[in-house]
Amino acid sequence: MGVAERLAAPAVGPHYHRRMTNSPAATQPAADAPDDRPYSPGLEGVIAGETALSKVDGANGRLTYRGYRIGDLVEHGTYSAVANLLWTGDWDPRARLSTAAVPEPVLAALRALPRTAKPMDALRTAVSSWGATEGVTYPPTVEQARALTAFSPSALAAFARIRQGKDPVDPDPSLDLVAGFLHQLKGEPPDAGDARALDAYFIVGAEHSFNASTFTARVITATNSDIASAVCGAIGTMKGPLHGGAPSEVVDQLSKMGSVERAEAWLRGALDRGERLMGFGHRVYRAYDPRAAALRKVAEGMEHQPDWLQLAIQVEDMALKLLAERHPERPLKTNVEFYAAPVLQGVGLTPDLFPATFSLARHAGWTAHILEQAANNRLIRPDVRYVGPPERDLPV
Ligand code: ACO
């Protein structure tokens, strides 16, 4: 049964939410009566909130942040200006944000981790210790959002160095956030082209409405919990390969293919085994992901391109053709992660840093949603259809 059939027509849209919450009788079937309230697995097609932050038009492949087109923001903006736009609603192209120092207790926590710890685990640990160290409390503020967004790149860079036996690098307040992150990661002044390319990646990764990690952050905030807890939960959600783990797996899949000659057979084999092609498909986009289009342009313009970029471009066409053959009923197009991979590798990040770097970019969106949720809060507590045994006596 399709989503449209599962959800009765008048029940879709903002009024659905209001009708359900304002009418307890509609949500509570009589005892022992079959529960035939509409249910959409994965909440697909369900309106679970309202936001003024971004609009994802999946059918037409369009994305705007507070009404501004993503392509224009990438071309004319910086991540700092975009973060400021999301937090405040004001477009100020000169808005600046630099990375912040990592408090000593957080560095101690990062040093205590095994060097083999996943960067996502290290980032989640860092944000948790930051919240405890700073004593962050509800309600969230724009200042907290700025402070956390400025802290996390320094913390991830510190962990990346600690695990290599190197000392963390102090923030350079003269650098904008993304250039500062590269500087603290590599310990040398960042290449301007690399910093610009990574800044573009941060802009496209900054916000994407009610994706799984953002929804997690809003659920946590809705309990009046603090911003650090909400971002920890969001990082945990993004760690899953279906959400934030895809770009490193794109690199992995391309390296398994090895060459254009072997690519088609490899792709067919993977699909025959029921595997998913990383960097393709999306819950909302049925058209080409506009973020992928923006990042492909950035990747092709980079001075330091990974040597497999041309392979990726050829594989993309083959994969789109094969996916269209296998799923003619469901358009599966390139998503943002496919071209995130060459940009991230091109600026010198190792694949295991990709998901955590995506999380750094998404800090702007997560924290903006946390502010938006708190400003008009209602505890998020959906209902569930019970499918277990009927009430019965315990055998004694
Ligand atoms: N490769 C092969 N088959 C796919 C892919 C893919 N990338 N994506 C979806 N399908 C298949 C599914 O297996 C499903 O087939 P089935 O019904 O025979 O099992 C069918 O297409 C329908 O899938 P959807 O309902 O469109 O997918 P869903 O909304 O559940 O999942 C998701 C979306 C998780 C992004 C999925 O497309 C996927 O796993 N892609 C690969 C991972 C990836 O690139 N993730 C990054 C997403 S972008 C982001 O999070 C920033």
Topology readout:
Blueprint: H1 3-6, H2 14-22, H3 24-27, E1 54-57, E2 62-65, E3 68-69, H4 70-76, H5 79-88, H6 104-112, H7 119-134, H8 142-162, H9 177-186, H10 192-205, H11 212-222, H12 227-238, H13 246-257, H14 260-272, H15 290-300, H16 309-326, H17 336-346, H18 354-375
Antiparallel strand pairs: 1-2, 2-3
Helix pairs in contact: 4-10, 5-18, 6-7, 6-8, 7-8, 7-12, 8-9, 8-18, 10-15, 10-17, 10-18, 11-12, 11-18, 12-18, 13-17, 14-16, 15-17
This protein binds acetyl coenzyme *A (ACO).
CATH topology of the largest domain: Citrate Synthase, domain 1
Low-confidence stretches: 1-25
Helical segment tally?
Answer: 18
**What is the number of independent domains?**
2
* Helix residue percentage: 40-55%
CATH homologous superfamily designation of the largest domain: Citrate Synthase, domain 1
How far from one another are the termini? 42 Å
Give the radius of gyration. 22 Å
Measured by DSSP, the beta-strand proportion falls in under 5%
Q: Give the overall average pLDDT.
A: 91
Indicate the CATH architecture of the largest domain.
Orthogonal Bundle
Bound molecules: acetyl coenzyme *A
Order of helix and strand elements from N to C terminus: HHHEEEHHHHHHHHHHHHHHH
